[in-house]
Amino acid sequence: MKYRTLSGLLTLSLLFGCSSTEEIVPDIPAAELYSEAQSSLQSGNWMTAIERLEALDSRYPFGAYSEQVQLDLIYAYYKNNDIPLAQASIERFLRLNPTHEKLDWILYMRGLNYMAQDHSFMHSAFNIDRSDRDPEPARSAFNSFKQLLQRYPNSVYTADAHKRMYSLKNRLANYDLATADFYLRREAWIAAINRCQELQKTYPDTEAARESLKIQLEAYQKLGLDEAVQRTQKLIELNPQF
């Protein structure tokens, strides 16, 4: 009997939840719903904008506002920090509209979204250095911005993408430096040297590349490779720290 009562309450709760959700977004014409969504976007009311846009997307998937609704959803999800939903919407749009006129904006937003995945509020708030965290989101962001620059060099988003690539390059270089230091502390001398040399080759104009010469020098010293030690010391002299 108790089970039936609980089951009945759960059913009523679910029905009430569904009806409440429907009440949030009234059944009004598409044009009016779209106007409300735009007003919410302009005022920064991301949750309300998302509710209206999602309703438009589900009720009128082939309507006059279909493509713009999808673009607006990407932006609203991103601003609301709904990163997985923004990413899914971006990939969906790219799949359905591979030659869209606003593809430069999509690539730019994909880069921003990947950067958001790499960002940690706690690390920034407490100034915690986590160079050793997984760099894949940063690498994906770098590649998205690079694709934007290559395909749309005259885009209005190119200048900002270029600045972000500079920051991401340093982020990726610092990860390689942290990895090389990890190998050094584990006395994996060859692995440390290889990572340093790869870092110097891929990101030669970074502070991390210069710092890696110190790790490389110590690894060569531990291996007793005098000639390599001398070459590395010369490189350090030619590349002073800032």
Task: Give the helix/strand layout.
Elements: H1 2-24, H2 30-43, H3 46-59, H4 66-79, H5 83-96, H6 103-118, H7 121-125, H8 136-151, H9 158-185, H10 189-202, H11 207-223, H12 226-238
Helix pairs in contact: 2-3, 3-4, 4-5, 4-6, 5-6, 6-8, 8-9, 9-10, 9-11, 10-11, 11-12
How would you explain this protein's 3D organization?
The protein has 242 residues and is an all-alpha fold. It folds into 2 domains: 89 residues, Alpha Horseshoe (Serine Threonine Protein Phosphatase 5, Tetratricopeptide repeat), CATH 1.25.40; 90 residues, Serine Threonine Protein Phosphatase 5, Tetratricopeptide repeat (Alpha Horseshoe), CATH 1.25.40.10. It has 12 helices and no strands. Helix 10 runs antiparallel to helix 11. It is elongated.
What is the level 1 CATH name of the largest domain? Mainly Alpha
CATH architecture of the largest domain: Alpha Horseshoe
Report the end-to-end length measured between terminal Cα atoms.
77 Å
Label the structural class: mainly alpha
Number of strands: 0
Shape: elongated
Radius of gyration: 26 Å
Helix run count: 12
CATH fold label of the largest domain? Serine Threonine Protein Phosphatase 5, Tetratricopeptide repeat
Largest sheet: none
Strand content: under 5%
Topology pattern, helix = H, strand = E: HHHHHHHHHHHH
Estimate nothing, just give the exact number of structural domains. 2
Q: Please, what is the average pLDDT?
A: 87
